[in-house]
Amino acid sequence: MSVESFIAAMPKVELYVQLEGAYPKETLAFIAEQNDVPLKVKHYDQILRSLDNPDYARIDDLMRNISQWIQQPEDLTRVVYDLGVSLAKQNVRYAEVGICPLYFLDQGITFEQFLSAINDGRDRVERAWRVRMAWILHIPVNDPRRAEDVLRWATSTSARKGGVVGFGVIGPEIASSLEDFERVLKTAQKKDIPRVVQAGNTPEAVQLIVEHLAPERLIGSGVGAEQSDASRMVSEQKVTYDVAITGTLKSGLISRIEDHPVRQMLDDGLQVCVGTGLPALFQTSLTNEYGALIRQLNFSVGEIQTLCLNAVRASFQEEGAKESMQAEFEAEFTRLRLEHQVTLETTQ
Question: pTM (2 decimals)?
């Protein structure tokens, strides 16, 4: 028994995972073959090979392109189910999955078909693996004209009944496009739907996004958020920051894991969670992310538990469900520490 076995066994919540960055390569290739994509898409083989070593500077374009290979509702059901199985294998009990509906509706799928398909996958996962999944509908930053459409879908009665719990804006350079999204996010706030925004990588960008877009959660690298003014604003506004450690490294924002600012963010009093972002494209998992904190940043078991419980509290579940989950997790942590012979102070 060890810290690593404890992390593998501990219950988890995943709040920062984007479906379009989570397709298993084998599943995507199978779906593409079924839809005759190799015959229709120029450089198909090259794009498929690139999934093993993506150009992270163009990762958003890659996600949009490969999502166009998913053309039938049953394709969506399949990739949702595969994600759910991956989460179950890591003992993730609940996940809020980001998804860009425009990528799929542009293939001719209606919103009703889209919602039915992802919930078919979700329901199969819950029945077979007891993993609960909810949805955050995202609008890419480079498609602001359709933000109101996505918000309308996210706040519809069918979406609320169909597990949609939030609305978000994702992509690089959001701070330079504030005027494109300020109004729609204020409308989202009035409609009482939780808001998630991908943060920039400078203190100035983080401050502008928090001040003008008023998100409840930030997602991204965390770079820039540890600087004093940005950190103070995030803390004062009680915004949760969900960081992807491996993604920050692979995107070239840090040169090694040890340079990630997550420790400073916690020391500054920020409520921090850890996610995977794009697990297939970043070639990581939530278990791996927690393991990296132990191995390379000298986090203790107690600190890992704190990060996990932060995710429970920051989720968009009903308050009663969060309280019940927190109590359940705390009891299980106690049992697992004894079983795996670790203490709250144990590090690698």
Answer: 0.96
